[in-house]
Amino acid sequence: MSIRVSIVSTRTGDDGTTGLGDKTRVPKDAPRIAALGDVDELNSAIGLWRAASPPAEVDALLGRIQHDLFDLGGELCIPGWTALKDDHVLRLDEALGYYNAELGPLQEFILPGGCPAAAHAHMARTIARRAERSVVALSRQETVNPPVLRYLNRLSDLCFVLARYLNRAAGVPDILWERDDQR
Fold it and tell me: DSSP secondary-structure letter at 171?
């Protein structure tokens, strides 16, 4: 992927189309562009999460994930090009195992929130789920590299686990959902 943007305002998208990395033009509301936009939004949300000063080891993990998401976006931008491999998914599985080992079992559903870093983790989780849904929609029409779907699925799980981990590290208990008759 060697295409670099040198001009930001090209005006070529004024007609409602955008260019892919293979130089084809597609409508801006095409499933591929929706998926690409959702992955870009997820990467931005993780950047915002990192600005909430998570612990250094979590920040390093999030930095690696941002690079992976940029590569994933490249796959979406250049049909037929692959960057994500099973090893990328395995790294997320390993992180899930590591951070999950620090947590107790879930006693109830958890509401998003807590310390700022955990709240950002929950926001990233929901955006990851949307990105996953967009890539699934794309996969119904075009071939998608299988590790891409697995990566987004694991990433949303990891965001949830990291939210719990970050709250615990900050001394904030999980915010448990209460049934209506418990409130």
Answer: T
